[in-house]
């Protein structure tokens, strides 16, 4: 279980970095454009990672990988849209907590048990995500649209993790490759269908400087590449451990988002957010201990 906790924690940090980059790019490019670029980069990256993980192209891997691709495309699109609409420090932890609750509830209602210490640790992870959501500047600029978009992103992301759990244990990274390929195709079709309706977004992009657009596209590609790395880590962790633990650890991805905000945009960590960081790390250790004892 200690290995699973380490994988989950690492995936959360990489996810947080990916989401920060995607949200950053979506502030100057349409969210659908950013998501499509990210998935294209994720397809290439997951293909490169495939030889590093023993994989099996079974029907289950293909089918659930395709379903995961549709869910992932929707969740990332919603997430980038939310992060472009409101404060990252509030929306990222909100999405993370909701995304954790869906598969944790699924796992616990389908026979996964960690005992009281482990389940208490999962609760502590969720609480730490809420503390990370503390906004020292106030939430007056968090619109209803941003809030609902964030909630939608969390629900769909949670469903995505459940689908990954349904892939065969021996499938390895194969479902992730299928996920990104299908997600890219779905997003490409959506982009084509919405092209004639997106003049407003097109005008927004045209008003940006060419250099700024190029940087945003590169950031979007980096977001997709890092997301692919995190997805491979997650599916390996799910097949080695259990869904409830991995889903709870995914709620820690704001650690990566906040770290990026501190380094890149010089945002300071509020006191309650610092408490959330300490609680998150302590809960991760408790999960590892509980898993070994179970």
Mind explaining what this structure looks like?
The chain is mainly α. The protein has one domain. Helices cover 80% and strands 0% of the residues. About 3% of the residues have low confidence.
In brief, what are we looking at here?
The protein has 294 residues and is mainly alpha-helical. It has helices at 2-25, 31-49, 59-85, 88-109, 115-132, 144-165, 174-193, 199-207, 210-240, 243-250, 254-264, 271-293. The chain has 12 helices and no strands.
Write the SSE topology.
Elements: H1 2-25, H2 31-49, H3 59-85, H4 88-109, H5 115-132, H6 144-165, H7 174-193, H8 199-207, H9 210-240, H10 243-250, H11 254-264, H12 271-293
Helix pairs in contact: 1-3, 1-9, 1-10, 1-11, 1-12, 2-3, 2-7, 2-9, 3-4, 3-6, 3-7, 4-5, 4-6, 4-10, 5-10, 5-12
Q: What keyword list fits this structure?
A:
single chain; 294 residues; mainly alpha; 12 helices; 0% strand
Provide the residue-averaged pLDDT: 80
Overall, the morphology is globular
Uncertain segments: 201-208
Give the number of helices.
Answer: 12
CA-based gyration radius: 18 Å
Give the ordered list of helices and strands.
Answer: HHHHHHHHHHHH
Question: What's the N-to-C terminus distance?
Answer: 10 Å
């Amino acid at each position: 279980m200690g290995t699973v906790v380490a994988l989950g924690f690492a995936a959360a940090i990489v996810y947080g970095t990916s989401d920060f980059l995607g949200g950053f790019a979506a502030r100057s490019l349409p969210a659908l454009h950013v998501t499509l670029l990210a998935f294209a980069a994720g397809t290439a990256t997951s293909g490169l990672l495939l030889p590093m993980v023993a994989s099996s192209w079974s029907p289950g891997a293909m089918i659930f990988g395709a379903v995961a691709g549709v869910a992932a495309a929707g969740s990332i699109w919603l997430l980038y849209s939310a992060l472009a609409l409101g404060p990252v420090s509030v929306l990222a932890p909100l999405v993370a907590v909701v995304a954790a609750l869906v598969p944790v509830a699924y796992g616990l209602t389908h026979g996964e048990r960690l005992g009281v210490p482990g389940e208490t640790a999962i609760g502590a992870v969720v609480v730490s995500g809420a503390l990370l959501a503390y906004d020292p500047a106030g939430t007056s600029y968090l619109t209803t649209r941003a809030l609902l978009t964030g909630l939608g992103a969390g629900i769909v992301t949670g469903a995505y993790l459940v689908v990954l759990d349904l892939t065969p244990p021996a499938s390895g990274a194969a479902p992730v490759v299928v996920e990104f390929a299908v997600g890219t195709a779905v997003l490409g079709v959506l982009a084509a269908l919405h092209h004639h309706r997106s003049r407003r977004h097109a005008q927004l992009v045209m008003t940006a400087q060419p250099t700024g657009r190029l940087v945003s596209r590169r950031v979007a590609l980096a977001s997709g590449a890092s997301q692919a790395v995190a997805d491979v880590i997650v599916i390996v962790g799910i097949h080695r451990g259990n869904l409830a633990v991995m889903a709870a650890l995914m709620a820690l991805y704001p650690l990566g988002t906040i770290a990026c905000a501190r380094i890149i945009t010089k945002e300071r960590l509020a006191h309650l957010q610092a408490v959330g960081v300490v609680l998150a790390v302590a809960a991760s250790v408790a999960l590892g201990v509980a898993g070994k004892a179970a």
